[in-house]
Amino acid sequence: MTPDADLPVFHLYGEPPKEHAFDVVHVETLVRAARHGWTIAPHRHRDLFQILVIGRGGGEMLTESGTLPFTAPVALLVPATVAHGFRFRRNETEGWVVSFTADVAQRLGDRAGEAITRFRALAADPVVPLGDDHARLDGLCCALADEQVFAREGHRLAMRGCLALLAVGVARRALARPHDRAAGPESDPVVEALRRLIEQHFRVERQLGFYADRLSMTPGRLNEHVKRITGVTAGHLIRQRVVTEAKRKLAFTAQPIHEIGQELTFPDPSHFTRFFRRQTGTTPHEFREQGGG
């Protein structure tokens, strides 16, 4: 695979990354693969997680640890920031690509961060045979597409319900697999330990040194290690978690903006506004007025 530093970063494949992507659930067929000659070159998604549900055909998944063949019916798991690509069997392969942002993934779990941690762990072995469950999971993808296209009353809630059922169904199939493959890059113990620390402390600690000390590393070494594994720095992961929490409160609560900043331990509203605008390109007030994105 191409060296990490040379890999393009996309929102959806071929689209420029969105710094403030939030509350996104998107589904489509393999139309992008067909447009690109059934080959998706190695790349990363900054904030999107993906589940591909392949019902016909097959191909190869390109990962940081090697090339993995797959044959339908199968699901393919892609966490955010992980390098990946595909070579599908030309004019034969059919399926769905379901994409969703980290904030949506977080709300799928019973506890904060649980769903993302579980997804990353399962995606260490990203090819999940679906067997007899394919028809039901394919139906959920069809329902997702129907809600997306027609955008009827309550469609956002309906799409998240379909996504939750799809994620649970794929997770159950993944947990039923024999565990005979080597763990992938996202099972890296340092990265996972950092994610757990961020989840525990992001509201009050944003200094890289705090996390590096607890991992018995220098800040420079921690940043270098995380960048090599995930494609983004440790500082980016910390800031992104703060931004995600701020967006969640702005979009889904009526809590005053200055109180949100206080909860996230910004010294005053102006500091919170500057931080939010630097990370997202918009102010907290504008983000809320735009309906969360």
What does this structure look like?
Helix 4 packs antiparallel against helix 5 and helix 6 crosses helix 9 (234-252). This protein folds into two domains: 4-175, Regulatory protein AraC (Jelly Rolls); 188-289, Arc Repressor Mutant, subunit A, CATH 1.10.10.60. By secondary structure, the chain is of the alpha+beta class. The chain contains twelve helices and ten strands. A five-stranded mixed beta sheet has the order 1-3-8-5-6. It has a five-stranded antiparallel beta sheet with strand order 2-9-4-7-10. It has helices at residues 31-35, 102-106, 114-122, 134-150, 155-175, 189-201, 208-214, 219-230, 234-252, 257-263, 269-280, 284-289; strands at 9-10, 25-29, 39-45, 48-56, 58-63, 66-71, 74-78, 84-88, 94-101, 127-129. The radius of gyration is 19 Å and the shape is globular. The model is unreliable at 180-186 (pLDDT under 50).
How is this structure best summarized?
This protein has helices at 31-35, 102-106, 114-122, 134-150, 155-175, 189-201, 208-214, 219-230, 234-252, 257-263, 269-280, 284-289, and strands spanning 9-10, 25-29, 39-45, 48-56, 58-63, 66-71, 74-78, 84-88, 94-101, 127-129.
Task: Give descriptors for this structure.
293 residues, alpha+beta, Jelly Rolls, Arc Repressor Mutant, subunit A, five-stranded mixed sheet, five-stranded antiparallel sheet
